[in-house]
Fold each of these.
Amino acid sequence: MADETVVTVDTVDTPDVASAAPAGRPGRSRAEKFDFLWADTRAKVALSWILLVVVVAILAPLIAPHDPIEQDLTNVFQGPSGSHLLGTDDIGRDFFSRLLYGARVSMFGSFLAVFVAMLIGIPVGLAAGYLGGIVENVLMRIVDSVLGFPAIVLAIGIIAALGPSLTNAMVAIGVTFSPSVARLMRGQVLATKNHLYVDAAEQFGSSSLRTIRRHILPNAIQPIIVQGALLLAVAFLAEAALSFIGLGAQPPTASWGGMLSRSAQYLQVSPSVQVYSPGVAITLTVLAINALGDSLRDSLDPVAGTERRVRRAIVRAERARRQRA
Amino acid sequence: MTSSGMTTSGKTTSPILEVKDLTISFSTPYGIADAVSGSNFTIGAGERVGMVGESGSGKSLTGLALLGLSPKAARIAGEILWDGRNLLALPEREMRSIRGRHISMIFQEPMTALDPVFTVGQQISATFRAHHKVSRSEAKDRAIDLLAEVGIPEPRRRYSEYPHQLSGGMRQRAMIAMALVCEPRLLVADEPTTALDVTIQAQVLDLIAKLSEERGTAVLLITHDLGVVAETCERVLTMYAGQLVEHAQVDDALEFPRHPYTSGLLAAIPRAGVAAEDLESIPGRVPPIHEFPTGCRFAPRCPYREPACDRPQPLVEAGAGRWVRCWRHDQLELAGAVR
Amino acid sequence: MLRLIGTRLAAVIPTLLFATFTIFGLQHIGPADPATVILGENATEERIAEVREQLGLNDPLVVQYVKWVGKVARGDLGGSIIRTEQVSTIIGRALPNTVQLVLAGVVISVVIGIPLGIFAATRPNSGADIAVTSGSAVGVSVPNFWLALVLVTLFAINWRLLPARGFETIGSGLGTAFKHTILPAFVVSTSGIAIVTRQVRGAMIEALSADSVRTHRAKGLPWRTILWKHALRNSAVTIITVIGLLVNTTLGATVVVEAVFAIPGMGFRVINAATARDFPVIQGVVLTYVLIVLAVNLLIDIAYRIIDPRIS
């Protein structure tokens, strides 16, 4: 018989190539989780734009050259000029200042919607997943029903009941989002519950509420954050659309959607820069939020992230070798 | 260094497949590494050859390379000669006419290897029609014939069933039918019984052996289980970490192994009368491809290691028709299988 | 087959119940009393009490709900508050326009999205694939009403190729209908194209990396066959699911786009009704939307079972 006791050298338990790549181990430290921000150009660009918009939103009163609601009926439909960078709208208001102030409305609105969605969705999902049984059944039925409505239509219905205003509109949007948050939350709870089941039976005896919460929430939070980012993008578009049709931000408040609405009414005479700038602003911001969300998702998903990291490492190694040759 | 000129017991074999210096490498973050290094072997007409090794030994990659199905990232060097042509140099179109027709392959997990949304019979017919101009009904008849030959009862009914409706053993038989429908001269079987019940394993292996005998189809049986090879093959190639480490007739290799790895594999075969805990597994694991030692690749796990083992080891002749990659092969008294 | 339809229909009933309850409840969740909304702010208390009695607003909520469902089931959606028409008439006029627009949008999304998705899946991570993926990302990020404005400026105002507003159904002739439909349908389909492309690409990539593809290659099947016959069939379930999602998304998109193009469809009506708090119209329109979505989902559910032999 082969003599096992005389194993001389390192019978090392070497990892395979993929997990040996930099920062590929699952369960990395907090700092490493944000690695993607520095490494990923797309995420960097997206984040910079979003920060810019947020800063503009916060500082609008300080940096806007004019009062956004101040009218000047002698000066309507002006093109871009020195004093009015983007010209004036149909009642003489400075378009550029309104554009800056519009950022506030959109940012505030989208965050509000996501907040409402989480406020409703997380507890519902938690309850459904954790309690199971009839509670879960009923809650999930309700969730599925709400998902059966085209979101905008339901939102319009709610706004009609509550009255058109930015807050009402975004709360309505948040309500239409909450089912998907609830679904996700419930899924996470179920996944962790199954995970812990075996352990719980052995180690914890009767699993305590607090232990499960301590284990479930941290794990569940990550996909919820990713979904939050993606919902933020949709909320942003929804706010613009609702303001466009007059059910969101009410005049004279400046909002990008509302400004487009006025440009649409006077399409033939509005300076073209006024037709394009709010739309471009919306597109870029939504694009950035989506890109950030995707990057977040890739970095938190071990498989996709590792694959990309290994691929990048290989490309780097090949490039280095070609340079040496 | 070729191993042609080797004869199997009794049969005269003219090699139908010659693998020369086959090297399969990949780009890793640490540079280019070989998953298979300089393999040399031949397969004769009607021969059944077993290729044994742990995962990471490069055996599956070798099998895939024979059919031109290597992963896109693989860089392949060397020659694979079939009928005098180098398969590695063939354009895809010609390779396609060889696959399934002259050289076939069956895979480990028949549930995933078969297409779930088509019937079993359709998949067999499709193979036949891909290589022969026949009508649908002719192909169907032929498929049903094959299903009967591989021992599937009620073949006409089974023709119209989907893979998920068949049992594991039947699925694998269906795959064999698919592989043999065009009467190939070589069948590459990659772990065909690993995913099956132990009782079914023997049946499927018997089927492969029987069909091989009847039709003169050569078989390259790739497996990690030496027991499987013992049952069905005439010759065995032991692979470790991308290299061929032993090459012999099955009986010789099993009774008198010359490489410590082969001996170790033998010790790990479950057998009657030996409790599971008493089975000895070889300690350690196959290293990842970029960490292969430059000397003997098995040395880190070898009980007989000596300083001279850190030099690159060539394949040396160790008797008639035997080759070993171990300079100590004639010094060691290695335990063989107890028959 | 009939039994299949029956069971799926039965599964839909709780959803329908809850949806109708929500729709019914809409007018009661607001701060405004429905009677006040109808009569205006200056109505007298007596008048309000009268109307409340008329509308049955003093009955318990559940009773009101049941009565309402009863009326709706008989096709009586009530009368519009701001117009002197029956809601069902209004919807009857608006529905064909919306349906035409949605169908056109869905067709465009599918006809462009599926080939694009397959194209990207067959060359993952290539330059073309990145272009397609980025294009999809932009498609989901562009506000469709703005895209509508831009396209109207170009096609209707600058180049005078297509009408800027108004709508004609097929009844008025294929040519005119096409000219009026093409622009809004394209706008409505932008996010649809992006969604379909992304999903098809994902499903095809997965199907192409399946073990069975390796087997097909080992059999010597041509790549063309593997792609179009096998990989596509295996992706069919995902693709059909997407179409369900697509209809829902496209329906939502029509709401705002109808406003931009002044198309007298349901979206147009519901926006007007919302601004005027014309609840019967709102309820009728929302109900119709929900019924459409449920019907489409039902069809897709049935289609699944036909396509994938594994689902019994």
Amino acid sequence: MTERLDKHTLKNGMVLLGEPMETVGSAAFGFMLPAGAALLPEGCCGAGNVITDWLFRGAADKDSRQLSDALDGLGLHRSSSVGSSHIIVAAALEAGNLPQALELYADIILRASLRDEQFELAKQLAIDEVLGLDDDPRQKVMLKLKEQFYPSPLGRSAVGEVSELKALTAEKTRQIIKNNFNLSETIFAVAGKYDFEKLCRQMEKLFGTARQKPLEPVKPGAKSDNYTHINADGAQVHIGLATRTVTPADDGYYNARIAVSVLSGGMSARLFTEIREKRGLCYAIGAQYHSLKEAAGIMCYAGTMPETAQETLDVIMAEFARLGDGISKEEIERAKVGLKSALILQSESSSSRAGAIGSDHYILGRVRSLDEIKEKIEATSVESVMEFLRNNGFGDFTVVTIGPKQVKVE
Amino acid sequence: MQFKKRILSNGLAVVGEVNTTAKSAAVGFFVRTGSRDENHKINGVSHFFEHMLFKGTERLNAFEVNEAFDRTGAQFNAGTSEETTVYYAAVLPEYLIEVTELWTELMRPSLRDEDFNIEKKVIKEEIAMYKDLPSFDVVERCRSLHFDGHPCGNSVLGSEESIDNLTAEQMHEYFAERYAPNNMALACAGNFSWDRICSVAESRCSSWQMQTVARKLEHCDGSKKKSRIEKPNLAREHICLISPAVAATDPRRFAALLLATIIGDDVGSRFFWGLVDAALAEAAVMQFGAMDGTGAFYSYIRCSSEDVPKVLDTVNGIFGSLAKNGISESEMRTAKNKILSALVIKNELPMGRLHDLGFNWLYLEQYRSVEDDINAIKAVTVDEINSLIEQFKPGCFTQLSIGPAKTP
């Protein structure tokens, strides 16, 4: 693989990253703005969701409708997300319309109208989203799990809290945007078809503001309780379970990824085999690696009927423990093939690549090439993974359940 | 892009679109069978069978099947709907033959009793999971209210009761009839060798026996019934609206797709401006579902129970104004831009291409390039969309809502 990485830093410090893809006609881009949930002032939980809606309700000389028509007119597919560290506003479109799209995004990020009456509507929708979570226990349990698992405020819910949203004012939210849309700490990533030289010139013109002062870094505090149960009258108990592991910056990272794959990489992985294939306890069961810059974890979900909830949790925990007893060469080989193939399959999508290079730059301070990742996956072995597990064994579980029945966490 | 086709003597269609610049390849079996092909005694069997297919053959047990897939690094899955069952995988080109051989082997499963009994538990967990997802539950129940006896209203998952009562023998009978080679297609997209795929198909699928397979096709105007279900544990009102539309074979399907986008795309549509932008509902979307012999427009809206009257007034206002004034030229242009760019982006991935390739063969027995679809969408006129509104009256719908108990 001979992918190229384009990189340029604007005078104010904003980083532009690009990965050209020869066979596609699309371009995908994302602005990573340092306004994630963990960076919000106390008492503003959920403000990120209000902001991502409010931003699109008019900018520069366009009202909400004109702005929306202009974006849709470019055939642009927008997405916004609020993470722990960033608000990401992203889009994918036919490459020819990229310059016009960037002009509109400069208006949205730098010159959003942020009118009071529009704020109330954005806030109402954010509150409704929190309320709607009660009707989606599977999503709710994983949000709650991250909140409990990561040292506060790293896992703070991006969806927010109703009481804090109700108290949020337009003035306060404008202030957050002003402080946290700090271009000197913003990363812009693009992948697909584009002309990098032209793009850099255009971006300097559109985003070349004065350099801004660095933001205060997050100071993680204590971790919450190990077990939380939310009583709800549903058909299943939804179980979320997390345990600490290393971040991508750690030397053991690829061993950790292989260990997670042995546990839950494919249908032959241990959790699926033991819980679904042998015992028929769950339909949905799986564990995934999840990382922030400061901390990382393995996040596991299982949904099962109340009478089998305890057994399901016990088997999951036993499987985490059993990893330390040994892993076969075949399991390691399947985990390697799975990770490598997922990497290459994702590399065909411009949106995935734009997301991956931006996240690499933020977490590692550099972008890994696909070849580097492949080589490091290749270099793992039964011995290296077992050695890793000896030094970084999985334990100290954080568990959250939602449903009609509690479980006992040993 | 090169299109390839071969029909084996037993009727199995093998279709492929070769793109030598792709980094991966995707392969799938597309079977013309789903819950509409069931009767109430065996309701849920299509979906249950889809699970059982992974349980192995005379040669492989379930664990060996899973290992065989994972050795290829495949991203694979299967899905069952009212009228199709699809099995697919995306892999690096060097693994395509191996994964195709595996699928061909699995298409003749052994359906062992012990696997059947364990998997029953998994299916019942899946039914329970969807009960806890009212946004899914409401659409499933509304479909049954709308189709009201028409087979397209059959539940895909079945009920706990129908799954409990299902026997392995009934599943064998269902399989023998529905998984005939002349009722399915093997499709392949991306970077692969057509000749090698054909020789896999010839050597491994030629012995499958052709059958007489029938499906009753009938258009359904829908019951237009209105109903509400109370569930005390819910926080929000989940509303589903269904009205009739054109079938998958109808040339007007592109106009129907544009109409659904104009009314209910997640941003910039009439629903968006009337309901979401105004914060009356947090979700309001419409989709066009083209089916065999019939079709439907599905809308899903989520809001607070107190706002339901205002939401429905707004919805009726939107449909009323569409019936009276039709759509505008600029609305259509915007919808075309959105659909065209989504089409291009989706088809950049072999997996995206595979689905269009397979479904076009299943429904139309036709190859359509991405350009064919782009041109068909570009050619739709305002008049064509307006005459769809006139004929199908999307404002006359079946309505089901699921929400919390009403305060007296």
